[in-house]
Amino acid sequence: MTPRMRFMPRNALAVGAALALLSTSWMLGCDASSGREVSFTMELRGATRTGDDPHHFITASGWDVTLSQATIVLGPVYLYENAPPAAALQPWWHPDRWLLSAAHAHAGDQHFSGGRVLGEWVDQQAFDCLGAPVALGPFTGTEATARSFSIRLDPPRSPLRAQSDPTHGYHAWLAGSAAKDGMTIRFEGGLEIGSEGTLRRVDGLSTQALLAEGGRFTLTVHPDAWLDLARFDALEPASNPDAPRVIGPTSQPHAVWFLGVRGGAGYTGTWSVPAGR
Predict the structure, then answer these.
(1) In whole angstroms, what is the distance from residue 74 CA to residue 155 CA?
(2) Is residue 122 a part of any domain in this protein?
(3) For residue range 216-250, what is the model confidence (pLDDT) as tens digits?
(4) What is the DSSP letter of 110?
(5) pTM of the model
(6) Separation CA 141–CA 131 (nearest Å)
């Protein structure tokens, strides 16, 4: 082995160690984790993944969709210190490998282990994704960086059922129309999520939220992600030709909707601090 060949591995190790040291130093300098108690708010808002208007979008399968209703029962929401498990899958040189701590599952269970809960909203809201943003709080949290969050999709509790019941007792309700190849299909229906395992949890959603006094965590719901691969022509025609087709529990759009509501593409979490703070 030549001297140059002996030098290269040592050089690579030195570069790797330097990168790790720089990444760790950057993390410690940017994550102002004082651990003190802070007051913050949350906001729920609806948007597509490409724009601010959640009413209209074109799916990956080519359907031009216009929604007239998109309501989902959300809550509680938890902000965690640990990063999603996907951070551990990054290559060794990727910053996330060094800056984000990996999450682990509990033995014998598939619950996401996010570490400390830094902030939480433990109530429930029938959120209209097509309406105005909804402000929640204030809440008390811990000043530190939240790197993931989880959402519970529980059945509507009695207070929600006693109101106008916008989801008709389901976890979510959709109505609208979809057009493709000269065909327009009106649809509506409800989504019910079973209680088995962790079906009613959307865990390990990625965020970078440095909880600070007076800040706001915005949870954006993307209804276009629910229907991206739906084939609306697979819905059975209604007996009344003027009635919308029903998104029944055995239909292909229902299966796609079920996966979309529980998928990471359906939600984003961002943090902001008002000017002057």
Answers:
(1) 9
(2) yes
(3) 999 999 999 999 999 999 999 999 989 999 999 99
(4) -
(5) 0.79
(6) 28
